[in-house]
Amino acid sequence: MKFRAEIDIMPLEALLDPQGKAVSNNMKNIGLAEISNVRIGKHITLALEAADKATAEAKVKEACEKLLANQIMEYFSFKVEEA
Amino acid sequence: MKFRAEIDIMPLEALLDPQGKAVSNNMKNIGLAEISNVRIGKHITLALEAADKATAEAKVKEACEKLLANQIMEYFSFKVEEA
After folding, report:
1. Contact B65/B77 with Cβ under 8 angstroms?
2. Three-state secondary-structure class, residue B7
3. C-alpha B58 chain-centroid distance
4. CB under 8 Å to A34, separation ≥6 — which residues?
5. Among A6, A78, A80, B65, which one has the highest count of C-beta atoms within 10 angstroms of its own C-beta?
6. Which of A35, A41, A45 lies nearest to residue B63, judging by beta carbons?
7. What is the mean pLDDT of residues B64-73?
8. CB proximity B52 to A under 8 Å
């Protein structure tokens, strides 16, 4: 079966996010002072083949842990759907 | 009212995504050859103040168009929830 995964990888809440901070500070310059606390991470989509949804989820988790996320600085969440 | 937005900004399907391609090619080296078609974009979270949900959505759309996304190369989607 074919599955499709959507993964979000974000900087840990405890860590500064300088890129997000810079964007937050610039919102007022474009007239959007209502916006605050911008945090910027990665969004990753991928396709995979697996026997069932549980296997697909295990594979995606493994990919996040081994390659996609740096768990010292980031946390990840994902959802897997049949394609 | 306070709202929270989650924004995904992805490279357009028609464009090459060299970073995603590199990750796809490396999946087999970590024993995950089932994974293909990796595409990497940005995930952005932010907080905002607005009178109602429709206004909040309009502000987030404006932020995406003016600052966060480069619509020549990227498309965005978002959802806004009451915080």
Report:
1. no
2. strand
3. 17
4. A27, B48, B49, B50, B59
5. A80
6. A35
7. 97
8. no
Residue spans of alpha helices (H) in A1-83:
18-27, 53-63
Structure tokens at B81: 């929830």
Sheet with B74-82, edge to edge strand ranges = A74-82, A2-11, A35-49, B35-49, B2-11, B74-82
Q: What is the model's pLDDT at position A33?
A: 96
Could you tell me if B12 lies within 8 Å of chain A, comparing CB atoms? Answer: no
DSSP states of B12-43: -TTS--HHHHHHHHHHGGGT-TTEEEEEEEEE
Q: What domains lie within chain B, and their CATH numbers? A: 2-82 (3.30.1280.10)
- CB of A39 within 8 Å of any CB in chain B? yes
How does residue B62 score in pLDDT terms, banded at 50, 70 and 90?
very high
Option in B32, B66, B68 nearest A63 (CB): B32
CB-nearest partner of B42 from A26, A27, A42: A42
pLDDT in tens, A15-66: 999 999 999 999 999 999 999 999 999 999 999 999 999 999 999 999 999 9
- List CB contacts (< 8 A) between B68 and chain A: 23
Q: What pTM was estimated for this model as a whole? A: 0.93
